[in-house]
Amino acid sequence: MQQGSKLRPPPIDVITIQSQVVYGSVGNGIAYRTLLKKNLEVLQVPSVLFGCPPYYGAPHGGAISSEWFSGFLEDLIAREVVCRARAIIIGYLGDVAQCHILADWLPRVIALNPGIKIYIDPVMGDYGEGVYVDKRLVERYRSPYLNLAHGLTPNGFELEQLCGMALSTREQTEQAARALLKGNTQWILVTSAPGVANGDKEVGLLLVTAEEAQSFTHAKIDSPVKGTGDMFTALLIAHLLQGESFSKAVPTAIHEVCAVLEDAARHGWQEIGHLRALK
Predict the structure, then answer these.
(1) Structure pTM?
(2) Could you tell me the CA-to-CA distances from 113 to 32, 120, 186, 228 in Å, in that order?
(3) Cα-based angle 78, 84, 87 (whole degrees, multiple of 5)
(4) What is the per-residue pLDDT for 24?
(5) What is the DSSP letter of 185?
(6) What is the torsional sign of CA 94, 96, 98, 103?
(7) Helix (H, G, I), strand (E, B) or coil at 255
(8) Least confident of 84-93, 143-152, 185-194, 259-268
(9) CA–CA separation, 3 vs 211, rounded Å?
């Protein structure tokens, strides 16, 4: 090595910041495996660390402390990792303090690496379960914090929380999503989008940009496994990073999630076992 040369961190495709479990297929437990399966280099930052997902009952573990969480993020700046990363995915957060920390950290990252893409899944809850995060976090998601993201992937219930009203038609869903196109935000992909599916046996998605709104549907898969939203977001971002257009990336990600769900249902798994259905 020549004198005066400086070693650099290797390039990283995605930094994924969300929940982490020892056992289970939610948060980083599925996003990390999915991104690796797509031949991407990935780093994980946990917002919480649980022995298993809470739907099995009260798990061991808890939220990562603010000191540790902010320290993890500072380390990525100090090691210049963020300067070599292509994208950041943010999902489930453990508390509102983590949201405040990210609101300060993300602009610094963008200043160091203007080409990096930020994707936020504002995880708050779902139909049938209601809000399962601190209500202060819901309020924080309604702030300009979300405008730091280039793309958002809320489900229909979360979009209703953001706009403050119930949604029942495609037009209402499009209008609510379009209202989020501020700041850096270029697109919203609403999963389980109200007013899009044709009946109870379908699931609808709605992609909204400044130029257009495009809907997608697929058959509902009878499988109890969780984490499909986390997996879908990871797949969508993987395809976008590989240069695919939305018109191809969204249907491909939908098809892949359905294939994995069918595989899990066929084997009677309680969690997504492995990702052999992904190419």
Answers:
(1) 0.94
(2) 22, 18, 18, 30
(3) 105
(4) 93
(5) -
(6) positive
(7) helix
(8) 259-268
(9) 52
